[in-house]
Design goal:
The complex is a heterodimer.
Chain A: E1 22-24, E2 30-34, E3 44-45, E4 52-53, E5 58-61, E6 70-71, E7 76-85, E8 91-99, H1 122-131, H2 144-147, E9 158-163, H3 172-195, E10 199-205, H4 209-219, E11 225-230, H5 239-247, E12 262-266, H6 267-279, E13 285-291, E14 299-304, H7 309-316, E15 322-327, E16 334-335, E17 349-354, H8 355-358, H9 371-375, H10 382-390, H11 394-399, H12 410-414, H13 421-440
Parallel strand pairs in A: 1-14, 9-10, 9-12, 10-11, 13-17
Antiparallel strand pairs in A: 2-8, 3-5, 4-7, 5-6, 7-8, 13-14, 15-16, 15-17
Helix pairs in contact in A: 1-3, 3-4, 3-6, 10-13
Chain B: H1 2-30, H2 37-45, H3 59-69, H4 81-92, E1 102-106, H5 127-133, H6 149-153, E2 159-161, E3 168-170, H7 180-184, E4 190-194, E5 201-204, H8 212-218, H9 228-232, E6 238-241, E7 244-247, H10 257-261, E8 267-270, H11 276-287
Antiparallel strand pairs in B: 1-4, 2-3, 5-8, 6-7
The chains are: A alpha/beta, B alpha+beta.
């Protein structure tokens, strides 16, 4: 079993919804699409109030490099293009569409038939991924096509596919691997063509033996795809840790995986790539786990983008004594400050966290136990970075590698004094990054 | 024998001391650093708090900068105020430009009552962090977060967070208008304004730039950008930009017309004597 060496923790897995097959959530009456559903610049709306749209029609375009296209997930009439409060409460520009019927664009193949043969060429595949607005569905929502615009002097040795799903509770990747494993592998084949890499490696944590066996059996027909079992350890699915586990290579500080000849994609992203390349279907849905220790129903939903969160919550019911609702995993996700918001790309979970578990413990003095240092998968010293960031000594923060922090939260998870290590490190990282950028200008 | 040793030692040390003194004398002559004596004089006049309010790292660097520039135009020690400026001007032999004494004001009135919390944030760690996380407990994306970054940054203990309103309060006597709170606040709520006659000030206690309906949704005392105050003002002191009124303190004549005109009570007047009617009411209730 492969794994990374430095740090890591083992939180309670709580993969409660792993037996629940993916269900399609009914199409809502109205959807609201934020134009910032990805990392990077907001896309530019190209529709106005009153316009008729079909499912899969382009409604906002990418104007800059790190940006993604946005397509209508429903058919109907555009009501307004106005800022709307998002999950954090800040107002962001959004396109609101009233739903009428379910009419798809003719160019999209809506049949369920699996199309194995890839007819597109390398540049065509990248162009298609870009046109279909595919972003990384592991949580960061980085536009996928950007990863494949490899500078000519660099060579890609491995496509790394992340099936680790190391965040507790979330089970959508697991279900995708079981239910759509074959499509995922075709997606990986498309990525191999797009990058020119000779080999793809898929890593799956040992707590999903069924998915591992299923994918290994399917992968036996492709000599260039290898499936590996990974130790169940958080953050196994983090980009740099996964590369270390699967190839033994280490990404240098401040560099991208391409430096060591790797490109990393999430397993659900490969499914979205399959749909884009083989079916010409843009990314208009998100896969979401509804879970929690006291959740009334456990679900793995396929939800159209822009569906109201409160609508989904009223369908599944909010359990009593819910302290907070977290989107995107208990370790790295964020508590939702405004539930009158809407689903966006890559929103992989809605978790009901019990009141008893949702509050911070009483913060006490650091007892120098060093648990945070042993837990840090990047080999940093979180207690020190915390102190430096509190003192606003950003020069020292930089020296001690604050910019290498992947914000996985392992340090804060194990701290016996409940110190808000990651919170302060995030502040420090933000300020240090600003300092470095202004210095380089 | 013993006497000889003592005398030898004294003579030897005397010679060493003398040689060293001669060397030091010539070295100090040759390598003398000529420093303007005014730097020391000015540094002695400055408060010595090294607060950084002037924009320089410390009082001595400010003194150096003043002497280098030869004037105090554009340079001002907010702590020392006009008196210090006058003293510095005397040292430099120039006339001091007068600067009105200033004070920091909080331009948000979104207390727990006026802007009820819609969510709960259980870390009172840092406004900067809360600002990056979400719009705030009241869901107003422009309002005070109440985590107290300004109070922590203040070196003069002039700001504290009121426990009831969860808003920062400026201690008028302690504030020296160094401006560190202004740069610390992630939402630009704090502004340095003239202290005004007898401490009387009129200002808009809101930073919300949303349209009226959105602003009012989260806070009862938000500026809705109706422009009534701007129309009422006879001195053209009020401007309206991005649905938000702003009172120019250099033009304001403290007539308080805008205060009574504002439909949402988003304009605050401080240090004015309380209206007589209210006083009577208070006294009657206390009697009862």
């Amino acid at each position: 079993m492969k794994t990374f060496k430095i740090g890591g923790i083992h939180p309670e897995e709580n993969k409660l919804a792993k037996e629940e097959a993916i269900e399609v959530f009914p199409i809502p009456k109205q959807v609201t699409l934020f134009v910032t559903q990805h990392l990077g610049a907001p896309s530019t709306p190209i529709v106005q109030a009153g316009d008729k749209v079909k499912v899969g029609q382009l409604v906002a375009t990418a104007q800059t490099l790190v940006c993604a296209n946005l397509h209508s997930p429903v058919s109907g009439t555009v009501v307004k293009v106005e800022p709307v409060p998002d999950m954090t409460g800040y107002r962001k520009l959004a396109i609101t569409i009233d739903v009428e019927d379910d009419i798809w664009e003719e160019t999209i193949d809506t049949t369920s038939e699996i199309r194995k043969e890839i007819t597109l060429t390398k540049p065509e595949i990248i162009e298609r991924i870009k046109a279909c607005g595919v972003v990384g569905l592991g949580g960061a929502c980085f536009p996928t096509h950007v990863k494949y615009m490899v500078p000519p002097e660099k060579k890609v040795d491995y496509i790394i596919v992340n099936g680790a799903e190391c965040e507790p509770y979330i089970t959508t990747d697991h279900r995708i691997m079981l239910e759509n494993g074959e499509e995922c592998l075709i997606g990986v084949q498309a990525l191999l063509i797009a990058s020119g890499a000779p080999e793809a490696r898929i890593g799956i944590e040992a707590n999903k033996p069924d998915a591992f066996e299923h994918l290994q059996r399917l992968a036996s027909q492709y000599p260039n795809i290898k499936v590996f079992k990974l130790k169940t350890k958080y953050p196994q699915g983090a980009e740099k840790q996964l590369i270390k586990s699967l190839t033994g290579r280490e990404v240098p500080n401040g560099k991208l995986p391409i430096e060591v000849g790797c490109i990393v994609n999430n397993i659900t992203t490969t499914y979205a790539i399959y749909e884009a390349v083989q079916k010409n279907k843009p990314l208009i849905e998100t896969y979401t786990t509804i879970s929690g220790k006291r959740a009334k129903t456990l679900k793995n939903y396929k939800i159209r983008l822009g569906t109201s969160i409160s609508e989904v919550l009223s369908t599944v019911g909010i359990p009593e004594n819910t302290g907070k609702i977290v989107s995107g995993g208990p370790m790295m996700g964020k508590a939702i400050a405004n539930i009158n918001s809407y689903f966006v790309k890559g929103m992989s979970s809605l978790l009901f966290i019990d009141e008893s578990e949702s509050k911070r413990g009483v913060v006490e003095e650091c007892i120098r136990c060093g648990k945070c240092v042993t837990a840090c998968p990047m080999g940093l010293e979180p207690y020190l970075l915390y102190a430096l960031a509190t003192r606003a000594d950003y020069e020292e923060c930089e020296k001690h590698g604050i910019m290498n922090c992947i914000e996985c939260g392992s340090c804060q998870y194990g701290c016996p004094a409940f110190r808000p290590l990651l919170d302060m490190i995030r502040v420090g990282k933000n300020k240090t990054g600003y300092m470095i950028r202004t210095r380089n200008k | 024998m013993t006497g000889n040793v003592i005398i030898d030692a004294a003579i030897l040390l005397g010679i060493v001391g003398l040689t060293a003194a001669i060397i030091l004398y010539f070295v100090s002559k040759v390598f003398k650093v000529i420093e303007d004596p005014r730097i020391d004089e000015i540094a002695a006049v400055l408060p010595g708090a090294n607060c950084g309010g002037c924009g320089y790292p410390g009082c001595r660097t400010l003194a150096e900068a003043i002497v280098k520039a030869g004037s105090i135009e554009g340079i001002f020690c907010p702590v020392g105020g006009e008196k210090t400026a006058q003293k510095i001007a005397d040292i430099l032999g120039i006339s001091a430009a007068s600067a009105e004494p200033k004070i920091a004001v909080i331009r948000c009135n979104g207390s727990c009552e006026n802007a009820p919390a819609k969510s709960f944030y259980d870390s009172t760690l840092s406004c900067a962090f809360a600002h990056s996380l979400f719009a705030g407990e009241s869901a107003c994306a422009y309002g005070c977060l109440g985590c107290g970054d300004c109070a922590a940054a203040c070196k003069f203990n002039a700001i504290y967070i009121d426990k009831l309103t969860k808003l920062p309060v400026i201690v008028e006597e302690a504030c020296v208008a160094c401006g560190i709170c202004v740069t610390t606040c992630p939402r630009n709520i704090i502004e340095l304004r003239n202290r005004g006659k007898n401490g009387k000030r009129v200002y808009v206690t809101c930073r919300n730039q949303e349209k009226g309906a959105w602003a009012k949704k989260n806070c009862n005392v938000a500026c809705i950008g109706c422009g009534k105050c701007a129309k009422a003002c006879q001195f053209e002191a009020i401007t309206l930009t991005n649905n938000l009124a702003y009172i120019d303190y250099t033009k304001c004549k403290l007539c308080k017309k805008c205060v009574s005109e504002c439909p949402t009570q988003a304009i605050t007047a401080v240090n004015f004597p309380a209206p007589k009617k209210e006083k009577i009411e208070v006294s009657t209730t206390s009697e009862e």
